[in-house]
Each structure stands twice: as C-alpha cells, then as structure tokens.
Amino acid sequence: MIDARLASAADQFAEGVLTGDQLRRITEPLRSDGAAHERTVAESMPTRVPVDAVGPLARQTWAGLHIDSQRAIIDALAEVVIDPSGSGKPFAPNLIRIEWKS
Questions:
Q1: Cα–Cα distance between 80 and 71 in angstroms, integer?
Q2: From CA 64, how far away is CA 1, in angstroms rounded?
Q3: What is the domain partition of the chain in residue ranges?
C-alpha cells in the first residue's frame, strides 16, 4: 500500500500535478511509515536456527553462539514450563518441564 502511494505521488510529480515540495511532504512520512512497518515485520518473523546448530557440528556451534542467539534457538524449539508447587511449598526442580514445539 505504501509503495503504491509512493508510486502514485511520483507519477503525479512526473505529470506536473505535484511540485517538488509537495512530493517531499508526501514521501517523507510514507517512507518513515514503510521503514517502521518493515521493522515490525522483521521483529515478528520467527528466529532462524543456524544450519550448524543441528547435526555433527551442533555442540561447537552452540558453544560459539551469543547467549541471545542461544535463547532464540531455545524459544524456537521448546517451551520451558514451571508447574506450580502449591501454596507455601518450596520450589522443586522436578516442577520444570520442557515441551518441544512441533
């Protein structure tokens, strides 16, 4: 939609319907909106798992990844669930479950 509006404004400028100042006033906010939309889409895309994170090089690849990348891989592959222990009961490690995403 934004690209279509930019193209339409460019066509109107080429036809002499719009001045350079009008074109600039139209395109600057549209480009800003477009960049914001692109960031939103990029942030909402699923994390890619590096190819070498599976298979024979997985251990070496994992060790070399930044902690944020490791977290992203875990988030992509599994969900950590902590079951309630009940009121007044201490935390117990056996309440932690890993559910693999399919």
A1: 11
A2: 41
A3: 2-44, 51-100
